[in-house]
Every structure is written in structure tokens, then in C-alpha cells.
Amino acid sequence: MDMNELKLMQNYPLSIKISKTQFRIREFYEYFNGEVYVAFSGGNDSLVMLHIIRSMYPDVKAVFVDTGVEFPEVRKFVKTFDNVIFLKPQKNFSQIITDYGYPIISKDVSNSIRLARKNIIEGKDTYRVRQFDGSQKGSRFDKSKWKFLLDAPFKISEQCCDELKKKPFKKFEKETGLKGYIGVLASEGGVRLQGYLKTGCNNYRFGNSKPLGFWTHQDILQYIKIYNLNMCPVYGDLIFDEARNKLVVTGEPRTGCMGCMFGCHLEKSPNRFERMKISHPHMYNYFIEKLNFKSVLDYINIKY
Predict the structure, then answer these.
(1) In the chain, which residues have pLDDT < 70?
(2) Is the distance from CB of 177 to CB of 35 less than 8 angstroms?
(3) Roughly how many angstroms between the first and final C-alpha of the chain, as a whole number?
(4) In degrees rounded to 5, what are phi and psi of residue 86?
(5) Crossing angle of helices 44-56 and 14-31, rounded to 10°
(6) Considering only CA atoms, which of 33, 76, 81, 24 is closest in space to residue 53?
(7) Can you give 5-63 as a three-state secondary structure string?
(8) Could you tell me the pTM of the whole model?
(9) Taking the CB of the first residue and of the last residue of the chain, which one, N or C, has fewer CB atoms within 10 A?
(10) What is the predicted pLDDT for the residue at 191?
(11) Measured between alpha carbons, how far is residue 190 from residues 27, 108, 220, 299 in Å?
């Protein structure tokens, strides 16, 4: 799939998107003889996906990974659903930070920093190292803006997502033989966009389906409003913002790991940590003080 095809699909009316999503869900379900499950995070994307799938196949299991650093409201919300399996990662977030490093800026940048540092220690002049030397200016591979992070006095890594989410799901799939529906949107950009462009909705080779891949964030909110779905309370209320001419939530815009720092440098004040200080002071103190997020956020000049 190319970007032009994706953009065309993203502009379809919601009714057509629902029909196409149902078709992809059915294709995947039948290909694997109903041996499937839904990766359910408690967030709005997976909420919509679960609703569509269970309207077609009511007995499909949902699987939630309790990382220990989700919003407490998310955990409670997931428990209100039937037929949900709870998984636990082998390592907790504190161990992952200690072993691998902090997740900052983006998965792509953290990954590049981690590998470039390794190559520099090994004395290798690699593509990863050259991404930071300014020789690729103007390209999407240019990361010279983040060169200062190579000298940061702390570890940096994108591996927390693999340890907390991907590995438990892979272990579950190996043990059960079930294949997963994943609620991700290409419109989020980055690795999710690139992944969707490579495979489209259904990746039969690796046994996963992204049936909402061509939806937008507004599509998700419109679906929730049309079908009157109950969102996780951490989102607040769903309202129409006349000034911006779109649906918005009044609470947290995302419900992922509370300790994720990806993208926080792009947020206006009050950012996620400033809000957390007020709404979840216990978790705030855990991240900022116990896990020393304050040193990391100070280094990248993020308020908290």
C-alpha cells in the first residue's frame, strides 16, 4: 500500500470504514478458523475494535497486559468487561528502566540513540552513528537535532514497549495458538504508519490484524458517540469543540503507560506529568522521584 491509497481510505465516510473493517475482521477470523483474540488496552481505539469484533463474534476473548504502570482507571475499566484474560510482563517497569533505559522523544529516536551509542563504544562508523553527524540533513533519517542525547548521563531505550506489551502477547500466542487483532491507527505516524503501509490490515504471515489501521482519531470518537460507548473515565467526557470543529475528550487524550515520555516534548503546558502531579500524585512521585524521571526531564528541558 502507498500513501495515496491510505489517504484515500482515510477520507472514506465512517459507514464505509465500518463495512471495510468488518470485512477485514471476517477475513482474518475465517483464515485462522476463529482461533483469534483481541488485544484490549482499555483505550478508545481498542474499545471500538472490541465492540465491532464482538458484534460479529461475541465469544472472542480479549487480552489485557497489566504492566503495573497503566492508569488505575484503565485497570478498573477493563475489569468491567466479560471474557478478558489478564497477562503480566516478566519484568516490571523499574527493572526495564534499569536494564535498558528511559523511553524519550520517540521509539525511533530512542532506538537510534541506543544503537548509535553501542556502535560508538565498539568503534564502528555505522549508519546509526552518521544519523547524528548532520550529513543527512533534510532527510527523515537526520537526527542531528538529538545529538546531545548521545552524551546523556542515563540509558535511553525504546525496549520498554517490547518488554511490557509485545513479549507477554507473544508468549500468550505461543501457548494458545491464538492470533491477535490490534487496535492501532496509521494516522499516529512513525512505526505504526510504516508498519501499516507494509502489510495493510491483515498480516497473515505474522498472524496479526489491524482492522482500524485506516481510521482516524476522529473516526474513533465519532463511532463512540454514535454507538454510545462508555469510555474509560480517565478520558473525561466526549464533547464537540466548536472552535476546532471536532470531537474532543475533556480528560487525558491517551491512556498508555503513565511512564512513557514519548512525545512529551511536543506537549503544551500542562503536559502529561504536570497533569499527573495533580490527578495521580502517588504515581507522579513514583516516576519523578523513585525512578528519577526528574533528571531525565531536566536534561531534555521538559517541565514537570
Answers:
(1) none
(2) yes
(3) 41
(4) -100, 130
(5) 70
(6) 24
(7) HHHHHHCCCHHHHHHHHHHHHHHHHHHCCCCEEEECCCCHHHHHHHHHHHHHCCCCEEE
(8) 0.92
(9) N
(10) 79
(11) 27, 8, 19, 24
- Rounded to 5 degrees, φ, ψ at 179 are -115, 145
- Whether the link from the prior residue into 270 is cis, omega within 30° of 0, is yes
- Put the strands of the sheet holding 179-182 in their side by side order: 84-87, 61-65, 36-39, 179-182, 208-209, 202-203
Cell numbers for 21, please give them. 473493517
Strand 179-182 with 36-39, pairing = parallel
Q: Which residue has the cell 482500524?
A: 212
In this structure, how many other beta carbons lie within 10 angstroms of the beta carbon of residue 145? 11
- Alpha-carbon gap, residue 198 to 129, rounded angstroms: 26
DSSP string, 88-117: --SS-HHHHHHHT-B-EE-HHHHHHHHHHH
Angle at 83 between CA 94 and CA 16, to 5 degrees: 95
CB 129 within 8 A of CB 141: no
The set of cell numbers assigned to 289 is 522521584
| 13-18 contacts, C-beta under 8 A, 24 or more apart | 14/219, 14/222, 14/223, 14/226, 17/214, 17/215, 17/219, 18/52, 18/223
Q: Distance between CA 298 and CA 30 in Å, rounded?
A: 51
CB atoms within 10 A of CB 244: 8
**Per-residue cell: 250:** 475533556
Reduced to 3 states (helix: H, G, I; strand: E, B; else coil), residue 246 is strand
Please count the residues of the chain.
304
